Amino acid sequence: MKLAFIFPGQGSQYVGMGRQMYECFPVARRTFEEADASLGFTLSRLCFEGPVEELQHTVNAQPAILTVSVACLRVLREKGVVPDVAAGHSLGEYSALVAAGAMTFADAVKIVRKRGQFMQEAVPLGAGGMMAVLGLDVPTVQEICRRASDAGVVEAVNLNCPGQVVIAGETQALERACVLAKEAGARRCVPLAVSAPFHSSLMLPAGEKLARELEQVAMADPRLPVVANVTADYVTSKEEVKRLLVQQVYSPVRWEESMRRLIAGGVQAFIEVGPGTVLCGLLRKINRQVNCWSVQDPESLEKVLACLKEVG
Q1: Domains of the chain with bracketed CATH
Q2: DSSP secondary structure string, 28-51?
Q3: Per-residue pLDDT tens for 31-40?
Q4: Which candidate in 44, 199, 200, 300 is catalytic?
Q5: 12 catalytic, yes or no?
Q6: pLDDT digits over 141-164, tens only?
Q7: Which residues are in the Malonyl-CoA:ACP transacylase (MAT) domain (predicted)?
Q8: Can you give the pLDDT at residue 153?
């Protein structure tokens, strides 16, 4: 059975995440200790105890989610569960690249903190945001964004699953797009709890800064096939990894296409590795025939190990 590991992005964080893995598995404890040492502050305490307001800040949420995901990844490996392929949603792509050996965890945790900082700095606080449009297809949402652009920048940026497209942009343009979406038959427009219009062209300055930082990071060719957000296709060289990570900051996340690429390649089972179950929820809307399980604590780990034993 062909198995994919998929890794969550920002928005999946919650206070207490990773704590039980830390307490139960030495390899998870070492992962949190490595993150704390690399960053120079106790990220582990922020994950376990909050406060939630601090954890939600982009500069903290990104390294925190990565750390929990890699801790879960390492526990799974210890249990003999290894993927055939990997992908990650936005920030989660860094977790996938760590899983593939393209970059070290120590480098990844530092770079995603800087990525979070650059993304937050690109647009003044309150000047932009993101919104999930429910009940419309991608071409319709893209046309709505085009029509709303007379009020400012607004773009379709997370192409998540049928009937769920996230848009990002300047506040007035987002509001205009929401009005147009409802007129076109959208069920709802749901503002996301993020502080900037991620993956939109407004993030170009963040991409430029990230490019300079990535030049200093030692990369390797992925030892495991990884599907990239920008292309919804496999990335094979370290040069391509760096180029696509830069583009990813200001380009749409083609998640539905990425999942369909993996399924077309023979993947029959997915494990969401890290906090939350968002990606399994999206996958159920893309294809109900494949299995998707999540691993974020010892209880979910045991369930997954039992399911894998059952399906052989």
Answers
A1: 3-122+202-311 (3.40.366.10), 128-195 (3.30.70.250)
A2: HHHHHHHHHHHHTS-HHHHHHH--
A3: 999 999 999 9
A4: 199
A5: no
A6: 999 999 999 999 999 999 999 999
A7: 6-310
A8: 98
Q: What does DSSP assign to residue 187?
A: S
Distance in angstroms (rounded) separating the CA atoms of residues 40 and 34 = 10
Two tokens at 282? 């999206």
Active-site residue (options: 12, 38, 44, 90): 90
What would the two tokens of residue 192 be? Answer: 């996301």
Q: Which residues contact 244 (CB under 8 A, 6 or more apart)?
A: 228, 229, 230, 231, 235
Of the candidates 128, 95, 302, the residue with the CA atom closest to the CA atom of residue 199: 128
What residues contact residue 101 under an 8 Å CB cut-off, 6+ apart? Answer: 220, 222, 223, 224
Task: Give the residue among 226, 11, 277 at the shortest CA–CA distance from 99.
Answer: 226
Would you call 57 a catalytic residue per the annotation?
no
**Per-residue CA distances from 302 to 77, 95, 157 (Å):** 14, 22, 35
Give the tens place of pLDDT for each residue, 159-212: 999 999 999 999 999 999 999 999 999 999 999 988 899 999 999 999 999 999
Measured between alpha carbons, how far is 8 from 278 in angstroms, rounded to an integer? Answer: 7
Q: Enter the tokens of residue 47.
A: 């994950």
